[in-house]
Amino acid sequence: CIRDRVDGGSRDVEEWRYLVEQYFSAEMVDEALAVMRCESRGDPLAYNPASGASGLFQFIPSTWVWASAGGGFAGASPFDPAANVGSAAWLVQRSLDQGKSAWTHWSCKP
Q: At what angle do helices 61-70 and 81-97 cross, to 10 degrees?
């Protein structure tokens, strides 16, 4: 979960609903927003200095490298909202395809 913010700002996850709807299936949108609310409170610049977790879905650096590549966002910043949401959607679908819980990679659960 969020520990610090790069910019000190506070946001509402509903601001990102349109983006979540682009990348997640309709039945997963509310779950994704709930996880986002817990992880970053909707702040795309959220950063946890203890773990390095960054962005809306709080990716740790090692997971970000392979999940962003898998999601088609290789080289993008985890602070880029579209890249973060798109990579989270890819990771959720990968987990489901492997027979795991959708949110297995997150501390926060819907």
A: 80
For residue 68, give both structure tokens: 């962003």
93, HSE (Cβ side, Cα atoms, 13 Å): 15
Sequence-ordered list of residues with C-beta below 8 angstroms from that of 9, at least 6 positions apart, any chain: 43, 45
**How far is 69 from 57, CA to CA, in rounded Å?**
16
Is the separation of the CB atoms in 67 and 92 below 8 Å?
Answer: no
Global confidence as pTM? 0.90
- In terms of Cβ atoms closer than 10 Å to its own Cβ (0-12, 13-18, 19+), residue 4 is exposed
pLDDT in tens, 47-84: 999 999 999 999 999 999 999 999 999 999 999 999 99
